[in-house]
Amino acid sequence: MVAETVIDIEQLSKSYGSHRAVDSLSLQIRRGEIFGLLGPNGAGKSTTILMLLGLSEPDGGRINVLGMNPTRRPIEVKRRVGYLPDDVGFYEDWTGLENLQLTARLNGIGEKEARERAMRLLGEVGLKDAAHKKAGTYSRGMRQRLGLADVLIKQPEIIILDEPTLGIDPKGIDELLALIYGLSREQGLTVLLSSHQLHQVQQICDRVGLFVKGKLLAEGNLEALTRQLLTDTPIVITAEVDRADQQLLDRLAELEQVRDVQSGAEDPDAVLPSSSRVLLQIGCSEDCSDAIARMIVSSGVSLYNLQRKQYGLDEIYRRYFAGGEEHGSKRSKKAAK
Ligand SMILES: Nc1ncnc2c1ncn2[C@@H]1O[C@H](COP(=O)(O)OP(=O)(O)OP(=O)(O)O)[C@@H](O)[C@H]1O
After folding, report:
1. CATH of domain 5-220
2. Which among 3, 168, 244, 327 has the fewest CB atoms less than 10 Å away?
3. Domain spanning 234-336: which CATH class is it, in words?
4. How far is ligand 1, taken at its centre, from the CA of residue 13, in Å?
5. Cβ(101) to ligand 1 under 6 A?
6. What atom in ligand 1 is closest to the CA of residue 22?
7. Ligand 1 mutation target, pool 14, 15, 46, most atoms within 8 A of CB
8. Whose CA is nearest to atom 8 of ligand 1?
9. Which is higher by pLDDT, 330 or 304?
10. Secondary element (H or E) of residue 85
11. Confidence of residue 265 (pLDDT cuts 50, 70, 90)
12. C-alpha span between 4 and 188 (Å, rounded)
């Protein structure tokens, strides 16, 4: 049985002045899913989250959270959706337990129940021993775990986490991610996790949406995402040469199948260390290694190595993040037209 859709976004848009922060975003998230909203700073992740919570009004499109329009029913949405911002505010002089009990009270939970839930959650997030210590003495990782407990105390159906691992050390990150994963699996909790860190999102998310400049470029599980992105980056041929002057770059760019040429980076995998070697990355619509090799050699340039590059999601992601949809600063025939 397919789980019900708990977040349904259709053609959502939001502008600040003339700047379109979110541009025709459509996205569905199902109950129990861990969805990663992955994008660089300024991609529009936080703006989307604010609209999901009814804290910001869309200019266009439609949002439905647990069957509700958050703009019309923000209080009901807030009751059923937990939100962990990247930096949670606590009363620093109060203990972790006291902070949680306060949140519980503010959510209308009785004193006895509040203490029980707070103690149970402190145990679940690994803060049992720190329950009676002041929040001001907690490390960044402990604060985020307390934040998670704080979000969970009202027993939400969905939790939205905005860059939850910012500023935490690697061990703390692994612990927090494992905790989020375990909570989702054990309690059927739906998680929307916003992050600009691919490897973190990769660790726990069932599906990922790659968000760049307000647009969703690709979405799916990691396999589907890689496939979608690879379609747009079909073939890259790398050539290791002794020099690459403007004339060679222009001649390569003239080849019919070549879409763009990047040069400059020295090949990190070069067999022989040499300061004079240059690595060319040539994006092509189809494999034209022969034509490229002929062009390089006929230009009087020494060719040491030529191969078709295999892209992983990591590299594709870096490529998008370096330069948005236009794939960074490179010579592009299409961009020049
Ligand atoms: N209140 C605002 N007024 C004007 N521009 C804004 C406002 N909030 C966000 N923006 C702009 O909208 C764009 C999207 O910002 P948003 O914070 O949603 O991105 P993000 O993906 O969450 O990135 P970050 O992780 O840096 O917050 C950015 O260019 C940002 O400068």
Report:
1. 3.40.50.300
2. 3
3. alpha beta
4. 13
5. no
6. 14
7. 46
8. 47
9. 304
10. none
11. low
12. 12
Nearest CA to ligand 1 atom 18: 44
Residue to mutate (ligand 1; options 13, 14, 18, 19; most atoms within 8 A of CB)? 19
- Report pLDDT digits (tens) over 283-303: 888 889 999 999 999 999 999
Do 96 and 145 form a contact (C-beta atoms < 8 A)?
no
Residues 6+ apart with CB under 8 A from 207: 29, 33, 34, 35, 36, 219, 220, 221
What's the 44 CA to ligand 1 centre distance in angstroms? 6
- Cα torsion 282, 283, 289, 292: sign: negative
Q: Is 91 in the pocket of ligand 1 (CB under 6 A)?
A: no
Mind listing the pLDDT tens digit for each residue in 94-127? 999 999 999 999 999 999 999 999 999 999 899 9
Helix ranges (H only) for the chain are 45-52, 74-80, 96-106, 111-124, 140-152, 170-187, 198-204, 222-232, 246-254, 289-298, 313-323, 333-336
Write the CA distances from 299 to 250, 252, 277, 279, 296, integer angstroms.
Answer: 11, 10, 16, 16, 5
- The CA distance from 244 to 267, in Å, is 13
Q: Which tens digits make up the pLDDT trace of 197-223?
A: 888 888 899 999 988 889 998 888 877
Positive/negative CA dihedral, 63, 68, 70, 71: positive
Residue-level pLDDT at 5: 95
Domain borders along the chain are 5-220, 234-336
